[in-house]
Amino acid sequence: MSLLVLRPLLVRNQRFSQLSMLRGLSSLPQPVRTYATAQRKSASTTSLSASTDRTDVSTDVRPMGERVKENTKTASYLGIILVGVGVTATLFYYTFRELFSSNSPNNIYTEALDRVKNENPVKDALGAPIKGFGEESRRGRRTHVAHTSYIRDGVQYIRMQFYVQGIRNKATVHLEKKMNESGDYEYRYLFVQLDYYPHTTVIIEDNRLQQDIPKAGSALEPIL
């Protein structure tokens, strides 16, 4: 009788023990799952690293000869560009010197024309106002001023000729300049020759005698 009474209690205790054991097992850490997750993360990291390495590899699979030809062409284009820049800079330099340098033919012509216009004998002979012009071109334009630069005894000279016209008559202007020790041009002579008879000459400046005397004196020194 006592066994029959205790049997249900024993069965209940046994079931309770089994449930407690299962609960304890479920609360334990799962090393197997963690290890598998770590393996997957490591594999994905390795895959990303490999893909990054593959992107760093050059994709240029052209033949070596073709690449050399392409580099040569690029170098040729660069050389042409540099030559063009050099030529342009040279043109700008000479243009600037021609327009703004006091020793340029254009400025020499402008300064001489101003002196001729302000000379009273010239105004009386030609009649004001007076205008100046150069040689006549094929198209009938008088823009070119004839000039010649030369070196004599190591000294730079420039000789120029242009024309002036007033309301009554015309004339031809002749000038020559010599470069001094300071690098500036100074007049040897400047005169205006009238085109009508008797072709009178108006001398505005003539320094040839003063400039040539030192040469004559130095040539006579060894003889004396």
From TrEMBL:
Keywords, sorted A to Z = Membrane, Mitochondrion, Mitochondrion inner membrane, Protein transport, Transit peptide, Translocation, Transmembrane, Transmembrane helix, Transport
Q: Which GO terms describe its cellular component?
A: TIM23 mitochondrial import inner membrane translocase complex
Recorded topology in the membrane: Single-pass membrane protein
What is its subcellular localisation?
A: Mitochondrion inner membrane; Mitochondrion membrane
Q: What is its main location?
A: mitochondrion
Region annotation Disordered: where it falls in the sequence: 36-58
Protein's UniProt keywords contain Transmembrane helix: yes
Please name the Gene3D superfamilies in this protein's record.
Mitochondrial import inner membrane translocase subunit Tim21
Cross-referenced InterPro entries: Tim21, Tim21_IMS_sf
Q: Name one Pfam family in it.
A: TIM21
Give the record's GO biological process terms: protein import into mitochondrial matrix
Q: Where is the composition biased (Low complexity)?
A: 42-52
Which residue ranges run through the membrane? 77-96
Q: Which PANTHER family match?
A: MITOCHONDRIAL IMPORT INNER MEMBRANE TRANSLOCASE SUBUNIT TIM21 (PTHR13032:SF6)
Instruction: Give the protein family.
Output: Belongs to the TIM21 family.
- Give the function comment from the record: Essential component of the TIM23 complex, a complex that mediates the translocation of transit peptide-containing proteins across the mitochondrial inner membrane.
Assembly and binders: Component of the TIM23 complex.
Query: Can you name this protein?
Result: Mitochondrial import inner membrane translocase subunit Tim21
Tell me which species this is from.
Culex quinquefasciatus
Task: Please name the taxonomic classification of the source.
Answer: Eukaryota, Metazoa, Ecdysozoa, Arthropoda, Hexapoda
